[in-house]
Amino acid sequence: MAFDDTLSMYNTIKKNKKEEIMEKEVLVIVDLKEGKLEKFMGWMQSDEGMSVRKSAAHPEKTIGAVKPDKSGVMFKVFVHNMEKMKEMVSGTNPIGKPIYDECVNKMHVWELTKVDI
Questions:
Q1: For 43-99, what is each residue's pLDDT tens digit?
Q2: DSSP string covering 37-100
Q3: CATH class of the 23-111 domain in this structure
Q4: CA dist., res. 97 & res. 111, Å (int)
Q5: Domain chopping of the chain, boundaries
Q6: Model pTM?
Q7: What value does the CA radius of gyration of the chain take, rounded to a whole number of Å?
Q8: Distance between CA 56 and CA 16 in Å, rounded?
Q9: Would you place residue 22 in the very low, low, confident or very high pLDDT band (cuts 50, 70, 90)?
Q10: Measured between alpha carbons, how far is residue 20 from residues 16, 97, 102 in Å?
């Protein structure tokens, strides 16, 4: 497989105001503290939560699901700023830290690659 083919599997390149933005697809599994699903999801959809999410990814492209026992959520996220994403999932983002500390046990992140079948 050529380098260009491999690169295209990991990134989608888009033109935006004459600059190229690399976008990565990641899977985030969030393990929540007991009874904190509603509070966490409410914050994620709030203006404050949306500003944190927008700093790292494209919220309008995010695909989410809730675990059957409501102990957590899963998101497929289209990330444009991996450093901001790392802040968010590690609980070190200053805006998101209070909700992370109150609601989240742990966030797990995987980079996704497309498989052609």
A1: 999 999 999 999 999 999 999 999 999 999 999 999 999 999 999 999 999 999 999
A2: HHHHHHHHHSHHHHHHHHHHB-GGG-EEEE-TTSSEEEEEEEES-HHHHHHHHHT--TTTHHHH
A3: alpha beta
A4: 23
A5: 23-111
A6: 0.77
A7: 15
A8: 16
A9: confident
A10: 6, 30, 37
